[in-house]
Specification:
Blueprint (H helix, E strand, L loop, with lengths): L1 H21 L17 H20 L5 H30 L4 E2 L5 H18 L9 H23 L2 E2 L4 E7 L11 H15 L3 E7 L9 H11 L7 E4 L5 H15 L5 E6 L4 H10 L3 E6 L9 H21 L2
Parallel strand pairs: 3-4, 3-6, 4-5, 6-7
Antiparallel strand pairs: 1-2
Helix pairs in contact: 1-2, 1-4, 2-3, 3-4, 5-10, 8-9, 9-10
Length: 323
């Protein structure tokens, strides 16, 4: 299993490092390890070398003494960086700069994986073992599902609210009678709380047509006004038909209106936020995510989370495929 996991990390990380060399916004490696303070070029080079080491271990586990020492040295750097990411996370948490109901950083799992692989290399316990399909397939599924789930529950559940120029609120279902779904009401209510706290000067409501003649953004505006938001502080994006369109429309709005790169907040349900963050990062927007305060657990939550697992991989891979 550690060799298969090493292969998954190696392939994913190396592909992202190569993509980042051509287009900086395509580099998604900071989502699993962050070499904060290191120049981007040096960080990409280090990750590329580390991923090559992991791939070499996965394919050719028997090592010479020199290669073993080099592999352990590289893994030690990755392990130290992951632990440093954990320390940064808890420092922000204890200072109250971030809030979460799941106080476990994704970096803790990343560090555990590197420690496990390093131990296996050091002890040479897997060098002679042959990888078999009954192990490979479940491990690949575990990696393919586990990574986005980690993003959804650990990153998505974290509240990164801060003072911002505007909060973008992502639409959800509006029924044919003009009433908002629970999901939509929760998102608007959370945005209104940010507005009342002075963290967002403007609320941008983005969405598409509802079930009947009512538009999502009109219903969102009516709710916000009812909950104390001035109509002058509301902007409607009536063409926010999906996540990518909403973020692109926001980018165009601020580049045309101000020509600046403002600080923004994004409000949606936790399962949706990692995909929002990924796309906004690629479009050059400075967005901090805020999970909607759920009035109760949505009945379709397993389906919604499963859909996001697939959607996250689509968002990861599509830009690289178009490179």
């Amino acid at each position: 299993m550690p060799r298969i996991i090493a292969a998954c990390i190696g392939i994913f990380g190396l592909a992202n490092a190569i993509a980042g060399c051509f287009r900086a916004e395509l580099d998604a490696n900071s989502w699993w390890i962050d070499f904060r303070g290191m120049p981007d070029g040096a960080a990409r080079a280090l990750i590329a070398v580390a991923c090559c080491v992991l791939l070499a271990y996965a394919l050719f586990p028997e090592m010479s003494a020199v290669r073993k020492a080099l592999s352990l040295a590289i893994l030690s750097v990755l392990l130290i960086a992951s632990i440093a990411n954990c320390v940064t996370y808890f420092a922000l948490l204890f200072r109250g700069w971030i809030r979460t109901t799941m106080p476990i950083p994704l970096s803790a799992f990343v560090a555990a994986v590197f420690a496990w692989i390093a131990f296996e290399i050091y002890s040479e316990r897997v060098a002679a073992r042959e990888m078999k399909w009954h192990t490979i397939i479940p491990t690949l599924i575990l990696c393919g599902v586990g990574f986005p789930l980690g993003q959804i529950f650990l990153v998505g559940k974290t509240d990164y609210s801060r003072p911002a120029e505007a909060a973008i609120v992502f639409g959800a279902r509006v029924y044919s009678d003009g009433s908002a779904s629970t999901a939509l009401a929760d998102r608007v209510r959370t945005a209104c709380e940010l507005y009342r706290r002075g963290l967002a000067k403007t609320l941008i409501f983005s969405g598409g047509p509802g079930d009947g003649s009512f538009h999502e953004t009109d219903v969102m505006r009516a709710l916000a006004i009812q909950w104390g938001v001035s109509d002058n502080d509301i902007v409607l994006d009536r063409d926010g038909l999906n996540t990518r369109a909403t973020i692109e429309n926001t980018r165009v709005h601020f580049s045309e209106a101000r020509g600046t790169r403002p600080r923004l907040l994004a409000v949606s349900h936790f399962y949706h936020l990692p995909r929002i963050k990924l796309e906004s990062q690629r479009l050059g927007l400075d967005i901090a995510t805020v999970p909607a305060r759920e009035s109760y657990t949505l009945t379709k939550m397993p389906f919604l989370i499963g859909r996001e697992v697939a959607a996250l991989w689509t968002y990861y891979l599509q830009p690289s495929a178009r490179m």
